[in-house]
Structures are given as C-alpha cells and as structure tokens.
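Recall that a protein's primary structure is simply its ordered list of amino acids. Everything else, from secondary elements to tertiary packing, is in principle encoded there. The following example makes that idea concrete.
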Amino acid sequence: MLRLLLVVVLVNGLVTFPHWILSGFEDIVVVSLEALTIVGILGLVPRGVLARRLSYGVAVFTVLLLVLAVADAILQIALGRLLNLYLDVFLLRPVYELLVGNIGGVATGMVLVLLPIGIGFCTLLLGNLINPNRASRKRGLVKVVCLAFAVFGGSGIYGLELPVPQERIATPLIRVGIQQTQHFFRMLKERERFTAEIKDNQEREETRRLNLNKLKGTNVFLAFVESYGMSVISDDRFQSVMGPRMIDFERRMERADIGVVSGSLVAPSQGGQSWYGHAAILSGLWVDNQLRYDLLLAEKPETLIDDFKNIGHKTIALMPAITRSWPEGQRFGYDQIFTHENIDYAGPPLNWVTMPDQFTWSFLQNNIRQGSDGAPLFVELGLISSHAPWTPILEIYDDWNSIADGKIFMEWGDTGPTPKELWMDHDEVKKHYGLSVDYAINAMTGFAEQYIKEKDLLIVLGDHQAAPLITGDDASKAVPVHVISKNQNLLEPFLEWGFIPGVVPKNTADVPGMDSFRGMLLEAYSDSILSLQEGR
C-alpha cells in the first residue's frame, strides 16, 4: 500500500510538471486527475505479460503527451500563445540557433544529447512505477484503493464536480491532447480560409484602384524595433528608464523641428516570430501562423513593396538579423536585400545581436541612402538591439561619423554579464530589457535628429510585444507606432486615423491590427479613389 501511494505521488508530480511551469512553481499541491486514473486503472489489471506491456505502452503515450504539455507551457511563457504542433515543428531550428547564441555550441550539444536520454529515462521510470506486476502482495486492499483512484480521477475528467478546490485540480495531458486535435482540424481549413481572404483583398484593391501617388518622391523608412511593445512605455516597472527616454525623444524632435504623431497597432505575435508582423504590415492581411505566412509567399498578393514600386520607389530590405539564405525576401520582391552576409560590418556580434542598431541606422544613411543615385526609397528595417538576451547594454556615440564600418563597437565585445549570468536573476532580466529598448529608441532618435529631411517619412513601430515572462500574462499584443517627418502634411492622415501628436500613444483597448496598416496608408496617400466602373 505504501508503494502504491508513493507511485501516485511520483506520477502526479511528473504529470503536473507543466502546470508548475505555468504557475511559476507556486501551485505546489496540485492533483492530476490523469495520474490518479492511470495508476488506478492499471492497478486493476491482473498481473502478467499483458500488464507489463500495457504499463509501458501507457508510459510511452503519457510521456509523449507530457513532452507536448511542457513545450506548450514554455511556448505560453515565451510567445504568449499555445503550442500548435501542426505548425511549430519549424521552430526547432530557430530554437537551436537561439540556444547556440545564448549558451554556446557545447552546452547546446549537451542539451540535445541529454534531452532524449531524459525522456527515455522518464518513460522507463513511469513504466516501472505503474507496472501492476510490481504492486503489493495485498491485492485486495490495493484493488479497492486503485478502484477509488480510477473512479475519482475518471469522474473529474468526465466533468463531474469533485469535493476538491478546482484550483487544486489539473488535467495537463488531456488539455494539450484536446488542443492539438483542435489545432489539427482548424489548420486543415486554414488554407482554404486564408486563400479566400487573399482573393477578397485583391478584389477590393482592384475595385478601389488605390495608389500611393501622394508619396511620390518621398523617402519612406519603415523600421521595426525588436520587442518594443506598449508595456515598456505604459508599465510602471519600466518608467524609471523609459519615462525619461520618451521625454528626451520628444524634446529632441521639437528642437530639430521634426513632427511626431503616435498610435498603436496589435501585432499578430508576442515574444517572437516577428516575420508575422512584417508580413501583416506589408500585405494588409492577418498573418498569425506559419501556414498563413507560407501561403502568403506562395500566392504572392500585392504588398506595400509593389505599391511603392508602382510609384517609382526603389524598394530595399535591411535585415541584419538574417544570417542565412532568405528566399522569402526574393518572394516579396525587394529590389535589393541587405542581410548579415552582405552588410559591411567590422564590429563584434553581441550575443544574438549581429550588429547594434546605431550601426544599422548609420548603414542606412551612409551606404543605402547615399548610394541610391537620388531615387526615392522605400526601406524596411529590422532593428535588433532590443532582442533577448539583452546583454550587453551599449551607449550611443554622439559622433555618428565615427561609426564607419563598425570597428568602434569592438570595445563592447566582452562587456556586460553573459546571458547565463543575467538570466539567473529574473528582475535583472526585466531591467536589461528596459535598458535595451531605451538604447533602441535613443539610436532611432539620433538618426532622425541627424538625417531626417523634408521629403522623408519615418515610421517606427514595435514588431511585437515582449514575452509574457517580461510583460506578465495580461499584457496586450499592442505595439507603439511613431510617425516622424519635417513635413506636417505627411503626418495629417495619421491624425485622422486616431494617432495623437507626441511620442506616447494613447493606452486604449480599442486598437486596430497590423493588417489594417496597408489599407490606411493607401487610402491616405492616394490621389484618387475610383471604382472600376468609374474608371471605364
């Protein structure tokens, strides 16, 4: 009997591990209905070869569900969403690269070796624990207790009310099993649904004949700041850093006679997968999963890139975070693409960050802008200094001419805590996150202050909110949007959309999605809005 109770405690602890992760290891006493049911039912099986095979079969199935439940819990903490096994297999490579960047190749290799060993050990351990052949010889009493466990656990799973506080009951394996089944069937319909959305969007565009003629000759810079969410400027935890930074941002723009209006948009992702936000902004379609992103690339509907090409702009992507081939960029149709491989940067990588934001802004000015032969530009930038692990925190060089090829940043190569050291302290991680965004906004402000001209429109927005680990579980997915120009006429349309003068957007729940941006831009800067019938 003592062994049976010990088995229940150990199996319960194993199965409720995902629940502990999500609760921050605060809800220690939690009863898993699955654990009671598994142990109870197997305890009623007669001893023999069948019992042994059944126990190990159940162990394999349980551990597989447990791995999915743990992955789901980690994804909720890191990306603020549930695991979607149908789509998220592709994340394995980015996770591997993130591990290598943060803990090194050797440590990552050890993790990859130990992980399957650990999973195998858990499977054998669980199979041995729930094997009825190893149960007590007092079969009568054991069977009565096992029957009670099976009835109690099964009743709770079935939905009957139990005399136990609901917050002390968990069914993580059943929950993740149901979720993945629902995801699978929903994704089967996603292709048809999104293809229809693309078609409807194209028909609306053809009917309205929108263009961007009012932006002819205007350089447009669309800059995505990594992990720049509304929380960092509205949450009291970051005010000691970001409060003064936003005041400084506004004052410097006023001194330079540069106008700023600000609003917010809801991003389709949180904590990562920034390419969804880029795709939604460019296409005018809601792209919140990999299937939609892949379909967008396959169908290739018109995007802002095409809109700017149509009015004579040279379209450029400046993406320093991309370190391997990027066929997606070719599919989007940029005239020129700059990634880590062909950006002439002589400074050091800074953990995951391939090059600091101030260099990226400097490269935009000194290499892209000056090499454009006077052609109007549409440049999409990805700024990455505020990407995790948020160490080291750099300072801005006042003399932008000193940036050159980036050798000046060599002094930062071995500074700051290592990612492993930093992430041992949760409060320190949050502090460094705020400081990294402070640096990103400071660098952007410096570029605008130094280089914005009369015929420039600079749009700066977050690519997504930071992970729930930083913002908390209740943070929205809204990100700030700053529109910057010396030409007030270029800012007026944004005021009509509900943006407000200044650098701090209204913190409101009524926020449009990123997919609305392209349509708003087309409506605002078209010189005519005609239907096909009117144009004939």
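Confidence is low (pLDDT under 50) at residues 529-536. Residues 100 and 107 are 8 Å apart (CA to CA).
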